[in-house]
Amino acid sequence: MFVANIPEKADIVVSVVKFPSDIDLYQAQKGIDNAKYALKDGGILILVAKCRMGVGDESFVNLL
To answer: Model pTM?
Structure first.
């Protein structure tokens, strides 16, 4: 587990997901799940991930 202490939550958070978790959106969403803890309510979260295999499995697409 990796934890970064921050003095306060931010208005804007940029989450950069690297290989191999950036293979598709299904895997890259881990970057959303973790970054949301640093984000103020109503803030903006920017996800940066290649997602070279697209969104992911059809069941994930249907869930979205």
So the answer is: 0.80
